[in-house]
Design a protein that fits this description.
This protein is an alpha+beta fold. Helix content is 39%, strand content 20%.
Length: 469
């Protein structure tokens, strides 16, 4: 009783601390009276989710399943081990392509996805003109399916054709293998749906020169620890999705001596180094493959609500969850909110596209914005917005990454392991920083910004998990 009286007395002798949850009118009124207010980003779970939340959270094995899944995600050890053509490592045959995001048919494909598929047809000499390529695709003259179905990921449209060279990443801990294509650079590139002569010429040079040169360097170097490199890059100002400047420099520092020592013509060595050094996003694809390997290590844990894939095809946004197998939960992809290049604006933007949200899935990208304050100059907002975005993500994740640490947050680990139940219960959606592709095929990149998934995909996944547990 005495202790209770002491606490009550303290309320009268100290300055009040006010916390508001979802009541903006109250918070605004108090702030106008100079009362310090801490607003909590909270909203009640969507109607109709109560039973599913109770079933999942009440399952005795759910917490252990989540802990096991996220432990596998953060203890994976992805290493770059090779660079090889997609025909060899993915078994792609002539007329077969991969694409970003969940499954998609030609008649629902967006402009940039169509543009990238047209470009792939031209690259593989399955058509002589863009119009001819489009007609072949319309009549079903080529087969295409998601990169994720083959252990691969692709940025933006993510289109992979048989002759493209792939980064091969192996998880030294759980023995999984993942793949990603080589980064083309910025501007008019296939992944943004451009397919002009300069795009095809660059891709052919990458297949003839860059891919073989990188293969020689990686094989001479031996397995390259990508997680260690990513951890260093985070402490140098990258978040490993829209900012890869430090990671690209670190990768080149590792591989340049071996590239110079390999049996590669000197002019090709110089061209490969010049191309990679002139592209601050060169590391992105390696980082995506590393994130894919880490996320795949957490797949297939019964009862776990851990998200193991977030991906967009320019029409749909899809997620996959550890405890529900290979099933996709999809909803409409949203248009990013960000900064636009030149005279472009929101009306020119395509809905979100790409497998690169695998970085957020594994605790990088938008989840590590606090590590990269300079990113706000590329995606919009202010530095405090970047810090706040990362801090919100701790509310919906299961762990803090032991290797990926944020200096600005006193070296706290990045939030990692999105839990569908936490997303539904809090109403906080994952934040993704992304490039923006032009709506029309052939346009290319028009900007960069931030985007959130549709809330319904997490609700659907929760209901599916509830039916299993």
């Amino acid at each position: 009783m005495t202790e209770a009286r002491h606490r009550l007395g303290g309320l009268l002798s100290r300055e009040p601390r006010v916390v508001t949850a979802g009541v903006e009118v109250l918070a605004d009124a108090l702030e106008r009276q100079a009362v310090p207010v801490e607003a909590v980003d909270w909203r009640p779970p969507p109607p109709g989710t109560e039973a599913a939340l109770a079933a999942v959270l009440g399952d005795p094995g759910h917490a252990d399943a989540n802990a096991r899944a996220v432990r596998r995600m953060v203890t994976a050890r992805p290493h770059l081990v090779d660079v090889r053509p997609a025909r060899e490592v993915l078994g792609l045959e002539t007329g077969s392509f991969l694409h970003a995001g969940p499954p998609l048919e030609w008649d629902r494909a967006s402009g940039p996805m169509r543009g990238a598929l047209i470009g792939a047809m031209l690259l593989e000499e399955l058509a002589e003109t863009p119009l001819g390529a489009e007609r072949e695709l319309e009549r079903g003259g080529a087969a295409f399916e998601p990169c994720h179905h083959h252990g691969a990921v692709g940025p933006m449209a993510g289109v992979v054709s048989p002759s493209m060279w792939m980064l091969v990443v192996e998880d030294a801990e759980y023995r999984g293998t993942s793949y990603c294509s080589l980064n083309e650079g910025l501007g008019k590139v296939l992944r943004y749906g451009a397919y002009g002569p300069e795009v095809i010429e660059r891709l052919r040079w990458m297949g003839a020169v860059l891919g073989p040169a990188l293969q020689a360097a990686v094989r001479l170097h031996g397995p390259l620890d990508l997680l260690s490199l990513i951890a260093q890059a985070l402490q140098m100002g990258d978040e490993l999705h829209n900012r890869n400047r430090a990671a690209t420099s670190l990768l080149l520092r590792e591989l340049a001596p071996d590239l110079a020592a390999a049996d590669v013509p000197r002019d090709q060595v110089a061209a490969a180094l010049r191309f990679a050094a002139g592209n601050d996003h060169f590391f992105l694809n390696a980082g995506m493959a590393a994130a894919k390997a880490s996320a795949d290590a957490a797949r297939g844990v019964p009862g776990s609500g851990l998200v193991v894939a977030m991906a967009r095809n320019g029409t749909d946004f899809g997620i996959q969850v550890s405890g529900t197998g290979d099933r996709w939960f999809t909803g409409p992809a949203g248009v990013p909110d960000g900064l636009y290049l030149g005279g472009y604006g929101p009306d020119d933007a395509n809905p979100d596209i790409g497998d690169s949200a695998i970085t957020e899935t594994a605790g990088m990208g938008g989840f590590a914005l606090a590590a990269a304050p300079a990113i706000v100059r590329f995606v919009g907002g202010e530095v405090p917005d970047a810090v706040a975005a990362t801090q919100r993500m701790y509310e919906i994740t299961l762990a803090e990454h032991p290797a990926l640490q944020i200096p600005l947050l006193s070296f706290r680990g990045t939030p990692v392991g999105i839990d569908v139940a936490r997303v539904v219960r809090t109403g906080i959606l994952p934040v993704i920083d992304t490039g923006i592709a032009g709506r029309e095929a052939g346009t290319g990149q028009v900007g960069a910004g931030l985007v959130e998934p549709p809330a319904g995909v997490f609700t659907d996944a929760l209901h599916a998990l509830a039916e299993i547990v």
